[in-house]
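Design a sequence for this backbone.
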């Protein structure tokens, strides 16, 4: 029942706090469905396996923005619109050139996306088409920001985006300065599909909360990037790689390393999930990709350690890997620097965030939960000299 507009809640009747909002259903959504017991994930009707096998990232974008797959002419049109909007405004490029080479890539991405709003008039246009246009613009520019920053910090020339090819192809081209092969493009495309959407996770919730104040899409996506950056959320993928490289550097036994972490009550990155109580279906797909790529690129040891860690976590804690665990070794095998992994996650998840933004804006109510006050009340004022 809707909260009364004339009467405040009696908080004494709500003594239970759902810490971390666990189990609270705050929105309805057509974007994705997760069965945490069965390990099933659906984007707008299609299982993640169906999409991984058949879709392109651009088709997934269309699906998340329109709740249906595109026809061929619609997909061609979306591809062309994404390709045409990849170029960054000079002011954003200047920012990337002037930022410290030690800056965290996710912080740079967050600031650069926020800067993009300067180049869009704040209009009272609330049409779906207008919002999709903004979603296309942000989605198409995020890969350019990430690749340009990485090249600048390594003293390399920035590569201008292509006005053709897929998001995955163009990103790898701008990052590496050479055209990717078919397999590299396909792997990156698959990673983008797998990370695109995941219900009411922390960054999507942040994005919808900002949207609910009738703020603009750039503000929502900027906030979402900030939420994704943390190691309990998207930041876990780079933390996984840091852990594997630490094991390598210390010449440690991966099983002993993990057992020590657990004995110290530390979290092992890339494991556990608020919703999944079994293997994350994306981790299952990424595991296969990691196995194949590690073999092809001579990183089999990293894959073997990952498998040993997986078994140890299952045996010791009964906890399964999440999407961030095997994506780390997939990106590593592709030669991508670990501190870019969360940016790649963001470059995909922006499709889900913007889909949720549109959905929230079309059926909005201000997000405003309550907190149970546990402080003192009605204290007497003590002048500053007497405290
Ligand atoms: C894209 C994504 O955001 S996927 C998640 C990425 N994050 C990570 O990989 C970070 C590591 N994982 C975690 O910190 C957690 O599993 C989270 C944050 C993802 C989920 O957290 P919650 O649902 O709040 O579960 P919570 O942290 O309460 O864990 C429940 C129990 O499992 C344990 N546990 C959960 N995850 C882990 C882990 N990765 N390593 C060790 N123990 C863990 C907790 O210590 C806790 O044990 P206890 O009951 O004995 O205290
Ligand atoms: O759903 C969550 O809590 C975390 C997330 O974004 C994901 O797993 O992709």
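Sequence:
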């Amino acid at each position: 029942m809707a909260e009364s507009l004339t009467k405040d809640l009696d908080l004494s009747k709500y003594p239970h706090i759902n810490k971390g909002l666990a189990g609270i259903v705050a929105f309805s959504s057509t974007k994705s469905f997760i069965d945490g017991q069965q390990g099933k994930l659906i984007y707008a009707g299609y299982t993640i396996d169906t999409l991984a096998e058949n879709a392109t990232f651009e088709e997934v974008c269309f699906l998340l923005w329109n709740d249906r797959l595109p026809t061929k002419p619609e997909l061609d049109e979306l591809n062309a619109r994404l390709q045409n909007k990849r170029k960054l405004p000079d002011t954003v490029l200047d920012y990337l050139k002037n930022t410290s080479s030690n800056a965290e890539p996710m912080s740079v991405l967050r600031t650069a996306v926020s800067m993009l709003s300067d180049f869009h008039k704040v209009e009272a246009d609330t049409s779906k088409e207008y919002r999709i246009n903004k979603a296309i613009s942000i989605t198409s520019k995020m890969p350019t920001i990430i690749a340009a920053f990485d090249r600048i910090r390594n003293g390399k020339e920035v590569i201008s985006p292509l006005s053709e090819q897929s998001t995955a192809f163009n990103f790898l081209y701008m990052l590496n300065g050479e055209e990717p092969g078919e397999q590299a493009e396909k792997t990156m495309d698959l990673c983008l599909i797998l990370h695109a959407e995941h219900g009411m996770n922390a960054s999507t919730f942040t994005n919808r909360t900002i949207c609910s104040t009738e703020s603009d899409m750039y503000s929502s996506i900027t906030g979402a990037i900030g939420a994704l950056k943390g190691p309990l959320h998207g930041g876990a993928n780079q933390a996984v790689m840091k852990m594997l490289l630490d094991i390598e550097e210390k010449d440690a036994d991966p099983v002993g390393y993990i057992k020590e972490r657990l004995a110290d009550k530390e979290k092992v990155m890339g494991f556990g999930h608020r919703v999944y109580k079994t293997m994350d279906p994306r981790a299952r797909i990424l595991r296969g990709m990691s196995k194949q790529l590690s073999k092809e690129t001579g990183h089999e040891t990293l894959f073997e350690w990952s498998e040993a860690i997986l078994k140890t976590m299952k045996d010791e804690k009964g906890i399964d890997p999440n999407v961030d665990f095997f994506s780390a070794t997939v990106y590593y095998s592709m030669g991508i620097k670990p501190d870019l992994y969360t940016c790649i996650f963001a470059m995909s998840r922006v499709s889900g965030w913007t889909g949720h933004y549109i959905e929230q804006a079309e059926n909005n109510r201000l997000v405003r939960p309550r907190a149970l006050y546990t402080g003192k009340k009605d204290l007497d004022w003590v002048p500053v000299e007497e405290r």
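The chain is about 55% helix and 5% strand.
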